[in-house]
Design brief:
Elements (H helix, E strand, L loop, with lengths): L2 H10 L3 E4 L5 E4 L2 H13 L1 H14 L4 H16 L5 E5 L7 E7 L3 E7 L6 H11 L5
Antiparallel strand pairs: 1-2, 3-4, 4-5
Length: 134
């Protein structure tokens, strides 16, 4: 079993593996499930750490990401009457990269596989649930 498969199957079993601040693997979940996964995690520790580190690096902001975020913030600043804005970077890429900005709340970047990207459904969902507290 490879490290990516271990991470996926463990998550499906309710066990989460993350990098800790100390640079080790933090394993959380139901005690019995964690105990089932620990031997395999220890056996594949270097590979799992590499996959987790690569995923963490993918989450680091880059200049293009910050530029997209600034575009969203600019639209929100220029149009004070709108509660949210969605900017699609390039709908022809795979994945499609979108930035969502919700006034006074947050911004986030979404990466959606092109074959599942439906901008009208996205806008409908945001419109229906904007302001809903979950």
């Amino acid at each position: 079993m490879n490290p990516a498969t271990i991470l996926k199957l463990a998550l499906e079993d309710g066990v989460t593996l993350d990098l800790s601040a100390a640079g080790t693997i933090k394993v959380t979940g139901d005690r019995s499930a964690v105990n089932r996964w620990l031997p395999l995690v220890r056996e594949h520790k270097p590979g799992i750490m590499a996959v987790l580190q690569e995923a963490a690096n993918d989450l680091l902001p880059d200049s293009a990401m910050e530029a997209r975020r600034q575009r969203v913030l600019t639209v929100l600043a220029e149009q004070p009457g709108i509660p949210y804005v969605v900017v699609v970077d390039n709908p022809d890429t795979d994945p499609v990269i979108m930035v969502l900005g919700i006034r006074g709340q947050a911004t986030c970047e979404l990466r959606v596989p092109r074959e599942k990207f439906d901008p009208f459904l996205l806008l409908d969902l945001i419109g229906r649930h904007c302001g809903t507290i979950h």
